[in-house]
Structures are given as C-alpha cells and as structure tokens.
Amino acid sequence: MRSLFLTVVYLLIIALGFQASYVWMLGYVWVDIFTPQLVAYSLLPSIPVSMILAVFVLFGLLRLPKDPDVVARSVTVLTVLLGAWMSLTLLWAEVPDAAFAKWNWAIKSVLFSCCVPYFLRNRIHIEAFLWTLVLSGIAHCLPFGAKVLISGGGMACLLAW
C-alpha cells in the first residue's frame, strides 16, 4: 500500500509539473531528501526517480517565461565555480574511486542549486519550497526518532554491566 501511495504521489508530481514547472523542482527536492525509492517496495526502487525528475526540471527550466529581472547573480556564478573546483580537485584525489562516489552526488546538488532561483519567482513558490524541505526532512527523520523513543537508540546493542 505504501509503494502504491508513493508511486501515485510521484506520478502526480510529474503530471502537475506540466501545469506549473516549479512543481518538478519541488518534486526533485522531495525525491532527494525523502528518498521514496528506499521506502517503497515494488515499483519505485526499480526506476531512476531522481534522474527522471532532473530531466523534467531541465525541461521545465527551458519552459519558464523569460524574465528580465532573473539574471545570473554573483551567488550563482560562485556556485558554478565551486562545481568546477570540485571537478578539478577530483583529478588529484588520493582515493579516486571514493572521491568519485562523493563527487557524483555532490556535483548534482551543487548544480541543481543553481537552477532553484529561476523557479522561485514569488512568495508562494518560496513557501512551497520551504514546506517541501521541512516536510521531506521530517518524513525522512520521523522513523528514526520513533525508534530512538521506543528502544532508546544504541543500534540495538545491550550494555552488560
């Protein structure tokens, strides 16, 4: 039942994105923080949910109306330079395999953060973005907090005195 619910939510995000492109950006944030593909059992673990939403986000970025007020600011330029620096330092990493694994997810996050300001155009978009961040984080951390409250944490280790 949980897999079906998360799959329907995922498909609903994709469908609603055709009405408003920023929904795809919110969906990408939800997928990266909550990770429904790790919670679901049947369909979502077998498909690349982040990659599919990333393609829709890039498509949505092209669909956005051109607004002269939205320009590449210095923060965006510095973020792109950070991504370039991360890629450059990957070349002389001491443990290239482990460094590439970290670089792989870090560069996606850094470059996605360059796209976010183009989608957040008014107060409603910003509030929706903040609510997505907060609720995704809560949904991700809630099971772990419940485990700590019930069992006391400790990774299921019993201390013998």
TrEMBL record:
Naturally occurring in which organism (per UniProt): Acidovorax delafieldii 2AN
Residues covered by the DUF5935 domain: 1-156
Keywords recorded for this protein, A-Z: Membrane, Transmembrane, Transmembrane helix
Transmembrane segments: 43-62, 74-93, 128-146
Protein name: O-antigen polymerase
Pfam families from the UniProt entry: DUF5935
InterPro entries: DUF5935 (IPR045979)
